[in-house]
């Protein structure tokens, strides 16, 4: 039986990185394979740049928690976020408060260091609302008929050139394209060199991120790369009729013309019948490229990124707004971390100014609800329609919903972390 005394919760020293990873792998049902030497080099470099916390019982790790700072795309800007990952508690030590003992101090630390939001991908949805997180961006799988005749390309799009390449070449091209593209996709995060090396198979890792992938790069008339895609094809046929599926693993473009050219080119590759792409935005513009919009179908829609606002003033002032207006919101945060009453005033240029106020609020909402609407991808009105937001001034929910909603202008493959 598990002990009931408080367990040691502390930062993880480098000599425990392997145990940390193996314990976390077990909770996520991954193969408990020890790191190969290249894996260890890559992972140690990653962990050394991050904050690892664990709980120990009898000298063994029984809970893990990992976080680091990264740039998060928010409406019209990027913002430093506390990214949280690898949250696990051994089955022998559940419901003893270990998650709480790891996440609460981290959220407080992040707030005190001036970080306005925390961000994570929830393995299970019921866990994080109590800590003030709200589901803020969704992802989906798209399936597209591999029929180039469906695509109606503009002259600009058709004039772009497409090059075939490989992951090694992509390493020098993709980071700049992605860096420009993700900024228009609220909920997407920046990717650093360690991420690119690991994902593109250049770190000699033994896990499944390595593997044969084909790449294409789209260039404009100045030869500047404006888009790329990584894919592979699973070959199959029925009675000699090709049923092969092309899977897009990553796709980013800096312009709508490049985006259209990428998809149209992928659809033109012979000996494939369908394209699929996971971890894509739910608002992917794909159907609007096609003469028959049913040629692109969405499935597996689910929540992806969850936001926890740690500083309402800083978070709301960091993003842009698509419309002007003023709303006073009362934000409930039982943890005492960041709640209060705030006046949000957005001017005609889309700049928001926020001030704590003693004045009467137009509406009252939970911190998790504000988090869900913060990235501008989920309408506050949609959440309000399910109840849970108290309106004190007629029309306040509709006004705040209109203020917070923001169109995504980029469509990148969302990054797991
Ligand atoms: C989810 C997990 C980390 C929770 O850890 P824990 O140490 O048991 O959590 P705590 O004891 O601190 O519980 C805090 C609160 O969350 C609740 N809670 C914890 N896990 C929950 C779950 N899966 N579903 C619903 N509520 C949960 C607890 O009941 C407790 O509520 P209370 O304060 O009202 O009593 C742990 O169950 C786990 O490792 N699960 C498998 C891996 C996983 O899902 N990780 C999440 C990755 S994003």
TrEMBL record:
Binding site residues for acetyl-CoA: 87-89, 95-100
Boundaries of every N-acetyltransferase domain copy: 12-154
Lineage: superkingdom: Bacteria
SUPFAM superfamilies in alphabetical order: Acyl-CoA N-acyltransferases (Nat), SCP-like
GO molecular function, one term: aminoglycoside N-acetyltransferase activity
InterPro entries: Acetyltransf_17 (IPR041380), Acetyltransferase_Eis (IPR051554), Acyl_CoA_acyltransferase (IPR016181), Eis_dom (IPR025559), GNAT_dom (IPR000182), NAcTrfase_Eis (IPR022902), SCP2_sterol-bd_dom_sf (IPR036527)
Active-site positions on this chain: 128 (proton donor), 417 (proton acceptor)
Record keywords: Acyltransferase, Host cytoplasmic vesicle, Transferase
One BP annotation, GO: aminoglycoside antibiotic catabolic process
NCBIfam families noted in UniProt: PRK01346.1-4 (NF002367)
Subunit structure: Homohexamer; trimer of dimers.
Family from the record: Belongs to the acetyltransferase Eis family.
Name of the featured protein: GNAT family N-acetyltransferase
Native source organism of the sequence: Antrihabitans cavernicola
